[in-house]
Amino acid sequence: MAVPRTAPILVASNRGPVSYTLGEDGSLTARRGGGGLVSGLSAIGPDANAVWVCAALGEGDREAARRAGDSHLNPGDTGGRQVRMLDIAPDVFAAAYNGVANSVLWFVHHLLYQTPVEPVFDAEFAEQWAAYESYNAAFADALAQEAVDEAVVLVQDYHLALVPAMLRERRPDLRIGHFSHTPWAPPDYYRLLPDDVAAGVLRGILGGDRAAFLTERWANAFADCCAAVLGAEIVRDGDSSGDRNRDGHGDGMATAVRFEGRETRLGVHGLGADADFLRERSRRADVDERLSTLRAQIGPGRKSIVRVDRTELSKNIVRGLLAYRRLLETHPEWRERVVHVAFAYPSRQDLAVYRDYTERVRRIADEINEEYGTEGWTPVALHVKDDFARSLAAYRLADVALVNPIRDGMNLVAKEVPVVSERGCALVLSREAGAYAELGEDALVVNPYDVEGTARALHEALRMSDDERADRTKRLAAAATALPPQAWFLAQLGAL
Ligand code: G6P
Questions:
Q1: In 230-265, which positions are buried (b, 16+ CB within 10 angstroms) versus exposed (e)?
Q2: Is the distance from the beta carbon of residue 58 to the nearest atom of ligand 1 less than 6 Å?
Q3: Euclidean distance between the first and final Cα of the chain, in Å?
Q4: Which family does it belong to (predicted)?
Q5: Distance between alpha carbon 181 and the CA centroid of its chain, in Å?
Q6: Which of 171, 368, 410, 424 could form a disulfide with 469 if both were Cys (CB 3.0 to 4.6 A apart)?
Q7: Whose CA is nearest to atom 6 of ligand 1?
Q8: Is the separation of the CB atoms in 394 and 306 below 8 Å?
Q9: What is the residue-averaged pLDDT of the chain?
Q10: CB distance 35 to ligand 1 below 6 Å
């Protein structure tokens, strides 16, 4: 049965606002989806007149998608939003999501390969790439079915890079934008990808009217890749004739890419923290309760260095722990006086490298506790079970927040902490996080690979006077909330 064309606004992302677990009795329990993308898109409320198309990620999701058929999910589960969850064959989904999106595109954009031995693009990858194409086609089909004439479609992230071009073929009347929540790789690194894949991803995104990013740096890198891989013409600020030298190092910010007779405009929208939501949510009773538990765990009179991440290779949790160990080694005065509260929540556990990384994080935390711990003091409090209320409690009490990713599209933790912090919190921030562009001035900035430098920054952060910390936190909070999710979403829509 054909789905009626009803939606004037469509959003497409791999992960949707809800995920389901299937009980043994066949019952489905709905939970809010996680990650930066879902936090940003949560601005799409029930009144937005939008349909959100996402993939079924696990068995529970697939069951919910099957029960809904071609219709939308039960609005009771989705906060009243209209959500269509695609039931994609499990092997196709696994190859597209684990194989291509998370093992290859994510690795390329975050510079995660150990290049002497990886990546290896063999026959298995060629099959995974075909699966990625059909997974993208499934989204393009669903969007083409749901959209009214001249609807606006916002396609999200690296999972769906081919959708804009595929959708344009099916529905040339639509206005299509793509938004990248990740960094974008520089051309030399991007070209690790097989040539057809490198070109395919760029052509896919260029099929839209607009491609947007979290910072100028990533937008420029995308333009550089279009020039290097496709020979596309780049339009830069104050230059309407195009960039002739095509070396990717023009002066101004890249504002459009011209390729095969079409022009795709580039944009930057630095997603900010949702101050109203965070302030209200972090004052609820469940957060108060966790705050008391955390305080007791840290112990009276001690300072805390807090980090909150998915257990994600790009987040650089291991070097963060090494820097903390180095701090205890070089500044014995902090022993017994500080606790590193590290939340490393499970992520992408289908991938062996993520499981290994999680193990490594645990091992190093244990080593530090064995090496330095005393009867009344555990130097590292590592928590691996996802608990949003406990994260907010940690934001409230943190003296120092450690955000040291190798590379990160934005990093919302860096923006959330200053908003929720009670007494002011010093931010140690990687210069490779997108958030650095907006928060760099009031943070203690580190090179994420430099463990020694990070240890020094932690020491500086712990020593910062209360007044300075409070002042900086105020400015950080203002910068962090400049473009809250609702405004971020409307800016994308408006620009299309
Ligand atoms: C990042 C990506 C999102 C993704 C999130 C969580 O923020 O940009 O697209 O949803 O990580 O990752 P996951 O694989 O669990 O969806």
A1: bebbbbbeeeeebbeebebebeeebbbbbbeeeebb
A2: no
A3: 31
A4: Belongs to the glycosyltransferase 20 family.
A5: 6
A6: 424
A7: 35
A8: yes
A9: 95
A10: yes
CA distance 156 to 56: 16
Q: Which run of H or of E encompasses 218?
A: helix 216-225
Residue 336 alpha carbon to ligand 1 centre in Å: 37
How confident is residue 7, by pLDDT bands cut at 50, 70 and 90? Answer: confident
Using the predicted structure, report yes or no on whether residue 418 has a pLDDT greater than 60.
yes
Atom of ligand 1 nearest to the CA of 13: 9
Asked if residue 181 has its Cβ within 6 Å of ligand 1, the reply is yes
pLDDT on residue 119: 98
Beta bridge partners of 383: 343
- What local confidence, expressed as pLDDT, does residue 242 receive? 47
157 CB within 6 A, ligand 1: yes
Substitution site in 112, 310, 358 for ligand 1 pocket (most atoms within 8 Å of beta carbon) = 310
The closest-lying atom of ligand 1 relative to the alpha carbon of residue 181 is 8
Distance between CA 79 and CA 43 in Å, rounded?
11
Quote ipTM for the complex. Answer: 0.99
Question: Is the CB of 110 within 6 Å of ligand 1?
Answer: no
According to DSSP, the β-strands at 338-345 and 426-430 are unpaired
Q: How confident is the model at residue 2 (pLDDT cuts 50, 70, 90)?
A: low
Q: Cα–Cα distance between 146 and 149 in angstroms, integer?
A: 10
Amino acid 274 reads: D
DSSP string, 450-495: -HHHHHHHHHHHHH--HHHHHHHHHHHHHHHTSS-HHHHHHHHHHH
Name the E strands within 109-204: 147-156, 175-179
CA nearest to 438, candidates 466, 479, 487, 397: 479
pLDDT of residue 46: 81
CA 36 to ligand 1 center in whole angstroms: 7
Query: What's the pLDDT band for 3 if we cut at 50, 70, 90?
Result: low
Rounded to two decimals, the pTM is: 0.96
List of long-range contacts for 258-262, beta carbons under 8 Å, 24+ apart: 258/232, 258/233, 258/234, 259/203, 259/206, 259/226, 259/230, 259/232, 259/233, 262/206
Question: Residue 243: pLDDT band by 50, 70, 90 thresholds?
Answer: very low
Contact between residue 174 and residue 210 where contact means Cβ atoms under 8 Å apart? no
d(CA 18, CA 147): 22
186 Cβ below 6 A of ligand 1: no
Q: Count CB neighbours of 15 within 10 A.
A: 20
Which residue's alpha carbon is at the smallest distance from atom 14 of ligand 1? Answer: 348
Report yes or no: 96 and 159 within 8 Å, Cβ to Cβ.
Answer: yes
- What is the whole-number distance in angstroms between the Cα of residue 447 and the centre of ligand 1? 24
β-bridge partners, 155:
12, 178
Band of residue 6 on the pLDDT scale cut at 50, 70, 90: confident
